[in-house]
Amino acid sequence: MIKRTLLASALIASTLGASASELIIAGRDSSYGDAMQFVVDEYKKNNPKAEITLVKRPSKGLYESVVLSMREKTGNYDVILMDDTWAPEFLANKWLSPLSDSLQDKDFIQSTVDIGRQDGKGASYALPMVGNVAMFAWNKDLFDQYKLQQPKTWTDVLNSAKTISQDGKANGVVYRGVKGNPIVTGFLPILWGYGGDVVDSNGKPTLNTPQAKHALETFLAMKQYAPKGVDVFNADEVRDALQKGTAAMAIEVWPAWVPDLDNAKVSNVVGKMEMMAPPAEIGQPSPMLGIWQLAIPADAKNKVEAEQFLAFASSAEIQKALALNFGTPPTRHSVYADPQVVSQYRWYPQQAAALEAGKARPRIQNWAEVESILGDFLQMAMMGQMTADQALEQAQKRIERSTKK
Question: Taking every pair of C-alpha atoms in the chain, what is the biggest distance, in angstroms?
C-alpha cells in the first residue's frame, strides 16, 4: 500500500493508491494531535484490521487542506476535525455528508450538537468532539478578603476590579488584548451580556448600537485595573497571572488553560479559583462555544467506516479517557457528571452548565474576515487610538463592505 504524501505547496494530502478501506483522518497538531492519536490507537485495539492514517496540521493548515480537498472533490479525507466557525461555509457549499440517525445520542449536550446542523436544526453533519467553552474565572479567596460577592454583572466585575486593585497587591482583572481572535473572543461575551451582537440574524452588522457602545466602554474601562502591557497579552499571560495569584479575575478562560490552577507544583492559588459562566448585564449569560467537531466530507471514500470511527471517537468511554489523560473537555452530560472526572476537575459541573447555555460565534461564512476587522478596531480603542464610538463606527463600515463582497 502506498501511503499518502504531503504536498507542501498545496497543503493537502494526496493519495497514490491507498487501500479503499483505509481511513484518512485530517486532524490538528500539538495536544489535539496527541489526543486524536490516542483515539486512533484505541480504535485499532478494538479493530485490529483497521488501516488508519492520521494527518496532523496546525489549525490554519488544517482548514486550508480540507477546504482544498472538499472544493476540488478529491476524496482525500474520510474524517475531518473542524472548528465550529468553519461549519457555515462547509454546509453552504454542501461539502459535508449528513450523519446517520444512529449517531445521535441524547447524552450529548444539546448546544454542542446543534452547532453541527444547518441553522441549528435539521440533519446533523458533525459530532462534537471537544467541548470548549469560554468561562469566567474569579479568585474567591481575594473576594473574601475584600468582602466582595461573586460578580453577577459586568458592572460588578468593574467595581470589584477597582476595589481589589486599589492597594496594589493584585490586579483586578486580566484578559487577552492581542488583536484578532484573542481580543474579539474576550469582548464577545461582554457584548452579548449587554444585549448586543456583531451581526443580526440576516448577517447584517449591528455594532454601531448603544448596546455595543456600553459593552465596549466597559471593556475599555477594565484596562486601568489590568496588568501593564495587557494590550499584548495572550493565553499564556492570562494563565500565568491567575496561577501566580496576581490577577483576581479573568474575563475569558478556556478548559486547556486551567487544569494546573489546582496543581501545587506550579500554582499559588490551589483551591482558590472558581469558574462560572460569564456575567451578563441584561438577560442570561452567554458563554462562547469553541466546539471542535468530527465530520465526514461529502466526497469521502469510506463513509461507513468513517461513521464507525465517529461513533467510537465520540463515545462516553473515549471522552472520559480524553478528559482524564489529556484534559480534553467532553461534550456529554454523563462524562461531566462522572465522579472520577469531577474529582480531577472540580469546576466541571459549572463548565457543563456553561456549555448548555453556550452561544456560537456568528454563523456567517466570512467570520474569519469579520473577526479580523473587529479585532483591529478593538485593539486600537484599547490602546487609546480611537474612542469606543469611533472604533465601532469604523468597524461597522468595514464589516458592511466585507459582507457585501
Answer: 68
